[in-house]
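Researcher: Following up on the earlier apo prediction. This time include the ligand. It's L263DTV3, with the SMILES given after the sequence.
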Amino acid sequence: MTIASPTLSPADAANPSALPAPSPLKTASELSVFLDFDGTLVEIAEHPQGIVVPPHLPQVLTDLSHRLEGRLAVVSGRSLAMLDAFLGPVPLAMAGSHGGEFRPAGATEVEALAEPLPEAVRTALASFAKGHGDLVFEAKPFSAAVHYRDRPQVAEQLLEFATDLATEHALKVKHGKMVVELAMPGSDKGSAVTRFMSMSPFKGSRPLFLGDDVTDEDAFAAVRVFDGSGVLVGPMRLTRALYRLEDVAAVHRWLENAV
Ligand SMILES: O=P(O)(O)OC[C@H]1O[C@H](O[C@H]2O[C@H](CO)[C@@H](O)[C@H](O)[C@H]2O)[C@H](O)[C@@H](O)[C@@H]1O
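Model: Understood. Below is the ligand-bound prediction.
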C-alpha cells in the first residue's frame, strides 16, 4: 500500500502550481475567519503535548473576534478540552474533534455532533500503538488517533490496520500529519464550518478557512459553497484552497495586520 495523503484529484485542486497570498484582512467587510490550530496557529511539535502557544495568541484571537463581531472560529482536530487547555478561557467559537464537538462563542455547553467511537475500536488502536514501539495514542471524545512521528516506518502498517478497522465498523479514516485517526462518519471540518455558517453571526458572511493539513480540505470545499475561500498554510501541494500563506508566522502576521 502506498501512503498517499490527500484524496484529492488534480481536477479538485484549484491551481496545483502556485497560489497568491490572501489580501490583508479587512474587519469592516462581511468576512468570517475560520482557523485550524496545529500547523496553522501553532507550530507542529514532535509530540501532541509539546506545542508552544505564543503567549500573545489568545488575546490576538479574542481581539480579532471582537472586531469581526464574533465571526471567527477555531476548527480543529483536537478535542475542545485540549484547545481550552492550550488557549485558556477565550470566548471564541470553536469546533473540535474534526467537527464532532461544537461550541458557539461564549457558550459553556459542548454540543456533540458525532457518535462516540465503539470501545472495541479504541482498544484495538491503543493496543496497536502499544505493540508497535509504544506509539502515542490519543483518545478524544469522538475519535482516536495514533501518532507515528516517532516511528514513520510503521505508517503503512498502521494505515492498513486502521483501514481494516474502519471497514469492519463503518468508520472514517483521517490521515493527517504523521497521524492516523478513526472517527464515526457524519462530521468533519466541512460540516462544522457549514453549521457555523447557518448561525448568527456567521450567516450571510463570506468565509475564509486557514489550514495546513489534508483534513482541512473538507473545510476548503465547504467555504466555497458560501462564496468563500481556503487559505493553505505551508508548502504548496494539491489543494482546494485558492490562497496560500507560507507558514505559521505568516498566519500570525496576517491576523495581526488586520485593518
Ligand atoms: O486540526 P488541527 O488543529 O490541525 O489538529 C490536527 C491534529 O493535531 C495534533 O496532531 C498534530 O500536531 C502534533 C503537535 O504539533 C504533532 O505532533 C502531530 O504529528 C500532528 O499530527 C493533535 O494531536 C491531533 O489530535 C489533531 O487531530
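Model: Helices lie at 57-67, 80-87, 119-131, 155-169, 189-197, 217-225, 248-256.
Researcher: Noted. I'll compare it with the apo version next.
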